[in-house]
Design brief:
Structural class: alpha+beta
Number of helices: 3
Shape: elongated
Number of strands: 9
Strand order of the largest sheet: 1-2-3-9-8-5
């Protein structure tokens, strides 16, 4: 899995590329893999203000609809016009052509709460480990249910 250098990452799996006072925002490779095939993207309007940690967009996949949370606060300067008609672009190139919005940062201090690529890589590894543990617990529950059914049959 790829975690490009020079980006900042949020715990909600968004990435930020800062150039001067402009931030380009998208979702990470991990996020798009978890979502599966993306079939619809809802983006904010140019000029709209987004607030750090609040939802600013929605992504619909074959699995679910998920909010996308603002990793920084600012005013939307540009949206990726390709995404409404070609939402799968996020699956194909989450860090490139799949960017979502560009904002003018209202507070550069917002960036202090974000992770670099190494920290994010560790965070994703922990998430995957937790997901694996959950799957193991689900498997154990299913086995226990089967055993209980077998016991009931024996009675």
């Amino acid at each position: 899995m790829e975690f490009p250098e020079g980006l900042k990452y949020s715990k909600e799996h968004e990435w930020v590329l800062v150039e001067g006072n402009t931030a380009t925002i998208g979702i990470t490779e991990y996020a798009q893999e978890e979502l599966g095939d993306i079939v619809y993207v809802e983006l904010p309007e140019v000029g709209e203000k987004i607030v750090k940690d609040d939802p600013f967009a929605a992504v619909e996949s074959v699995k679910a609809v998920s909010d996308v949370y603002a990793p920084v606060s600012g005013t939307v300067l540009e949206i990726n016009d390709v995404l409404p008609d070609n939402p799968e672009t996020i699956n194909d190139d989450p860090y490139g052509d799949g960017w979502m919005i560009r904002v003018e940062l209202s507070d550069k201090d917002d960036l202090k709460d974000l992770m670099d690529e190494d920290e994010y890589g560790e965070y994703v590894a922990q998430q995957k480990e937790a997901d694996d543990d959950d799957e193991d617990e689900d498997d154990e529950s299913e086995e226990e249910e089967e055993e209980d059914k077998d016991k009931d049959k024996d009675k």
